[in-house]
Structures
1.
Amino acid sequence: MKRCLFVDDSSVIRKVAKRILNSPEMVVVEAATGAEGLDMCAYDMPDIIVVDGALEDMGTTDFIRRVRALDGRVKPQIAICLTEVDIGAIMRAKRAGAQGYLLKPFTRPQLLDRFRAFDIAA
């Protein structure tokens, strides 16, 4: 079973994602802050991480670099979640170790399509 971590300060975004993605093949866990997300990754690294492009407690690229620096057998797929296309933010996230992005608010098909792309790349 795959594990997905959704790191976003919006409880609505986290809950919508959880409703869409939770299935017998995937469990979704939530973190409201970057620090909480890092603690969860250190304890049990998820297969996929979706992180808000505007974390309140740390920079998104800092979060991604810190996840990549953690030791472990799992190297997660990481996507940033943005409210608008920001090429600079996307490129900084990719240089830090992210594989892609998605826009919010997202629809069920958009989110599922992004996750199918992760499955192919994994």
2.
Amino acid sequence: MTSAEHVDVLIVGAGLSGVGAACRLQERLPGKSYAILEARDTIGGTWDLFRYPGIRSDSDMFTLGYPFRPWKDPKAIADGPSILAYVRETAAAYGIERHIRFGHRAVGASWSSADALWTVSTAHGATFTCRFLYLCSGYYDYAGGHVVDFPGRGEFAGDIVHPQQWPDELDYDGKQVVVIGSGATAVTLVPAMAPRAARVTMLQRSPSYIVARPGRDALADRIRALLPEHLAHRVVRGKNVVLGTFFFQLLRRLPDRASRTLRDRVAAQLPASIPVDPHFVPDYNPWDQRLCLVPDADLFQALRSGKADIVTDRIARFTPGGVLLESGRELPADVIVTATGLRLVAFGGITLTVDGREIEPGEQRAYKGMMFGGIPNLAWCVGYTNNSWTLRADLTSQYVCRLLEHLDRRGFVSCTPDAAGASSAGRPRPIVDLASGYIKRAAADLPKQGERRPWMMRQNYLLDLADMRFNRLEDGVMRFGRAESPVPA
């Protein structure tokens, strides 16, 4: 039997969050040993998994990028390959690769209070032990996206593709394409596929709010031309954080006015043949679901060109030659892209046990949006929904480093949010507090947040920045423990 590999910190996931966590750990705690378990055979996570045409960020790269490694590309809204290259270059620059164990999918983790140790098993039988377990694999299910079993699916004579499993060999040149969906993936695919396809139709059951913004940040370009690189990065990042927070609060506090403004801006960019109502009039308030970003108004350019169209209707069934709608209209199709959403999974699908007690993710309350009542020495990295993922991911990594420093300084071996405090935090709410379909489908299986701090996950970087960097670690909720017995080295 192969002996377990032991490290101080075990990170799960070598994507944007995991690489950032490793960089912070090396920076703050250079004496700590660590390893990264990566289920796939390469660095990049989501940005390597998704290969569909046009994949890009829906946040600006000055905040989606790392604060310690300036984004140098002139594109503020970047394409997937550029982001993937940035993550991999960062890993290379900081020497992260030698700590990654590729092809190691973590499937189980058990905590022993007697040993103050996590034991983590992988799918192919390897075992690791660690003092602290940091889950940085996000909440997307890498095994596959959400698939709708449309009636008649088996009758369709063409190709049916889900964006999460995009085949490299798919040929859509000169073909009729129907993209089913109205979210970020759909509004990305339509303008990306339109130049090569004969025609692309975005078929949506209900519309989303769409915002167009320039792909380059002109003010950021001027700032970067005037200031040294790292200072310019900090200034632009700060500017975008403040503006993003301001506009989010404005849209949430004035939903009626915000709705009208967003619709009016869309209407001004549509061709006369496409009315704003019903295609761009959602039945919810802005930020009840995430806004869809279209850089350089590329979706509207595709609609104006005549190579793309939008239809708002419900699907009756697939036919051999396309999609029959409940209105009776049939959309011809050679290729159907089912951009019907993602599947979410807690903790990367890892089965957790604490002293032999199995943890049910859906029953957990999140402390500061990252740790859980009664679960020692474990953090889950989850980003913002209203801003760049990395903003919160980096704050979480810095907080984890603060905790580890505190444990060492005070001679503790464990830190555990008090489970009793979680039960008094008010009614449970989804940790991802949006009304999107893919979130509602997974809500019961994901951890919850409460109504009061520290059991409430705020969507506000500025408030979280002060909390996670400066507030007391010994806050009366976090419990610190000393060794119950000799601990393995």
3.
Amino acid sequence: MKTVHILSILLLAAGFAGGSAGAAENQVVKCKTAKARKSAPYAGPALVANVPRAMTPIDLNAVQFTDKALTRQVLVEGLFARRTETDTVEVTARFINCTGEPLQVQARSSFMDATQVPTEPTSVWSRVFIPAYGTGVYRERSMGRDEVQYYLVELTAAP
């Protein structure tokens, strides 16, 4: 009985029983897609055209929207990459649906070496279901191991 009481006190102190102090619950997500579209370009590696100013650079280790209308509906909440236990690269992207309707999008990944040469074929398009004002997760693993240094996730509307 004493153990249960001590555990209850610890849970309350940690904010697990009844929620944490000051946390807002049951709120609908609010998105500022215009702010996201106006954000500064990433200062890291990018794919660039051989002819200067022939195209906008495509940031690597990022999500590239291939559908302009989608930039008003979806935000990238998080983008993560890690080495797996077999030393492949696993990319995970969490998307937020900023609309009041369920969305279906498609994502695919490209993996590249240190010189930005593809290490394998681009993955197949994977469908991601995102509920209204909810989140959806995309995950892909490379086939290559040590040679993979960069990745690119492309996002488009599902047909």
4.
Amino acid sequence: MADTSPQLPDSAPKPIPPGHLSSKHALRRKDRIHHLRRSARATTTQWRRTVIYWIGAVLVGIIAVLFARMGDGAADLRSRIIAWHPWAMLFVAPAGLAFITWMTRTLFKGAQGSGIPQTIATLHIDNYTVVDRVLSLKISVGKILLTCLGLICGASIGREGPSVQVGASVMHGFSRLLGQSNIAAKRSMILAGGAAGMAAAFNTPLAGIVFAIEELSHSFEQRTSGRTLTVVVVSGVTAIALLGNYTYFGHADVDIPVGTAWIAVLTCGILGGLAGGTFAALVIKASRGLPGPVGRFAGQRPIAFAAACGLVLAIIGLISKGTTYGTGYAQARAIFAGTEHYPASFFLLKYLAMLVSYCSGIPGGMFAPSLAIGAAIGGWIEQFLPHTTPGAVVLLGTVAYFCGVAQSPLTATIIVMEMCDNQQVTLALLATSFLAFGVSRMVCPRPLYTSLADRFMEANERATRPKPVAPEPPVAQVKDAEKAS
């Protein structure tokens, strides 16, 4: 009997067995579960990393605040020593600088210097053994302790530069804790830590971000990193929570309207750029070695040379009646407030004290003393410009000299603007800063911190370069020499 059941065409879909259908759905469910687990693991890892970044940023802020308190305590102790007997600094300064130099050559090797050039250098060094050494916890501790000791001894230094290196060290330590192997990620953490250290030290979060963009970073990827912004903001908020929302100069209700008042912009921009550029050029030259017998003495007997620098600092301090010691924060604030009027000699003596402090080789930054010198320049200029608000001229002098030294016009403008809590003078500050930048470049073509970072990298390259091995003499020559002997 013929088969009368309907025949399906070859192209028609064939029925799927029920068991096969259920197994396919099971596989899909299993794949979905695996995908959800992977996503959950990735999200958990990402959140864990984010929390660790925040913890690092908070720690940078706390350390910066403690550093600031220690710096203030060091300044108070120095004031008590001077009040007891001003001539005591003739012993304290030489002995202290000699001890600091000995410590940087024994217990805390590599702690000397500002901290900003070292941080810039680590963003360009591929050998992470060197980076780990430069940004080690030991160096950070030494940087803080020896900078505070330098302030007690009357050195004209600041804590902002060391805060940058300490912040970079903290975030680099957390990067190692996370086991990051990507070089770009490591450098991003160093950059974020350095910027956070700057922001927390000055209590200027916006300036910290701009500093990371303009001074520390040299690549577009690092400039646009959201991680850097987050770390800077969290660190800045931590500092504000601990110290309060203070400003370096206090609130400044001053304005510089466009017109004759802008003569101050031209005057401060030119003079500040010349003075700052000259200082930067002198420091770059000194970093290559001092000339003549002084240079030979510094190279052969660095501890004795540091003691001699301390003696010079003490003599300058006695001449200036103690105003050139330390960061210069109190003098800058008094000049801006109009409560104190310092002669032009204060600017010259503070300028010389900064140079001597750098040449001694002790740890310490140049930001705070530069602000004091700039304020002194503005305070001296204001007496010749009666048609301009005195406090405004002080701000212009501050931004001009600071930019002349660092050659970072945006950073200088934002720092001074945030330190005086005044946005009305932003346009005048920008104009002064860029004018000083141009004048400084004519005197010192290469930026100060970039030049010092290059010098630091060259020194490290020479130190890590393997020494050439002398070729062994041929066997015949050895035998002849043995016969001759």
